[in-house]
Structures are given as C-alpha cells and as structure tokens.
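SAMPLE LOG
Freezer: B-3
Tube label: C17
Construct: single chain, 121 aa
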Amino acid sequence: QVQLVEFGGGLVQAGGSLRLSCATSGSIFSINAMGWYRQAPGKLRELVATITKRGTTNYADSVKGRFTISRDNAKNAVYLQMNSLKPEDTAVYYCNAGVQVRAGTIFGDYWGQGTQVTVSS
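STRUCTURE (predicted):
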C-alpha cells in the first residue's frame, strides 16, 4: 500500500523557520500533484500550498512570500520551507499526493498522518 510520512515538525519561536519533508513509499507508479494542508484546533483543514508535476505552485494567501513548496520527482518527495513563522501558523500539517499505483489505473488521493508545527509568541 501507499504511505506518506511527514518529517520536520516541531516547536519554533515566532520569526523562525522550519522545513517539512514528506516521504512516500509503497506501490507507486506515478505521482501527479502534491501538496501541503494544515488543520488548527476548531478549524477546517485548509490548503497551504500545492505543486504540479511540472513545478507550478499555488499558495494560500496567508503564507505567500513566507512558505516555499518544492518536490523531487526522482524521490517522490515534497517539501515545505516555512520562514517568518507566526503563531497563527500553528497546526497539524498534512502531506497530500495524487498517486497512480499501477500503469493505466486512475490516480487516487493519499494523505500522510500529519506533523505538529507549533509557533510560540
């Protein structure tokens, strides 16, 4: 089965930086778009950033200019560089990928287990 695992979460002071990584494993033939989402207590899960297979990116307005998403297609990995962190960035961050497990099959949506990011004031 396909698995996505996030790394790099933790506690950081406001203004600091963190780099999140998402590693994929299992039966993976191809990966289409990848992205990062987050969910804070009492709020809905929201999009943070996405990146297409060709490298086109999309960001939530709240993180533009501060976060950078990137990917390594050879490793089937996606990263999120977070700079100038604010307390309102505190949330569980989830990795997402559209995965084709076998040639000729439909792409499915897969999620990681999440990693906690806490920004102190």
